[in-house]
Fold:
Amino acid sequence: MGTPDYAAKSLEALIAAGHEILLAVTQPDKAKGRSGELVPTPVKIVASEHGIPVFQPERIKRPEAVEVLRKLDAEIFVVAAFGQILSQEILDMPKYGCLNVHASLLPKYRGASPIQRVILEGEEKTGITIMQMDAGIDTGDILYQKEIPIEDTDDFESLSGKLEILGGVAIVEAIDLLTEGKLIPRKQDDSLSCYAPLISKEMGRLDFQQPAVKLDRQIRAMTPWPSAFTKWNGKQLKIWKATPLSDGKSKAKPGQVAEVTKDFFSVQTGEGVLCIQELQMEGKKRMSAHDFLLGAALKPGDFLGEGTADGKH
Structure:
């Protein structure tokens, strides 16, 4: 049971490992663009390529959907970013239960957006937890975990790619150990838990009163969606790549352009300066700061943000 690329990688790994996949359960196709053309989910695409039956219920809890699952007589349900809540009736069906491929080191970062949150919070490592699902949100017993470091340059896209692959490795290893009776379920310590709710578009808005290192984490966590953004000359300016200089000093105020060179420009923050290297003006394509500065009249003293040239934001 899964929907996006993250889930599709786990499905591919299970297929490659020789497991018999009785059914792929995924969200209904969604209309995309002006044409309204229905687009299949990544899990549906992978399943179809391998001749695996696909089931796309509007609601997995409905009696007719539950009956489809019951008739499978499956030993394990593997769940990865499915997007629907399973009932206790479904959780109790398989011999080995329902295993969730969660993209954090539980009990930290339960919820829908763990990958963005670990970047936002400046964590040094993350990983995959294979969890025995229960009725709570990511509260089940921990069966197996694999860790990876978070690089200073990792954004949501790059870290997701690493975790997609790691998730596939982890679920295959975990199932082998579980069926051999070699995994001991471990209760989560709720006192160490924190929640990672859905990311909203507004969370991409940059506040230059914040330290440069925190703004850098925000930019990386929000790339590619919803993207980190501010304003310049009344137009939206997306920031795709930047480097924080926590010891950088200038006489500029937070939000004010401190320096402009041919390759980048820096903005004063609440602590240190932020060197902008890749961006996108409203109505334009994504480009390097070098290319942007060839045609933009940005100069030291200009302000980024919602305010005006007097620095009031």
User: Anything to note?
Assistant: Confidence is low (pLDDT under 50) at residues 308-313.
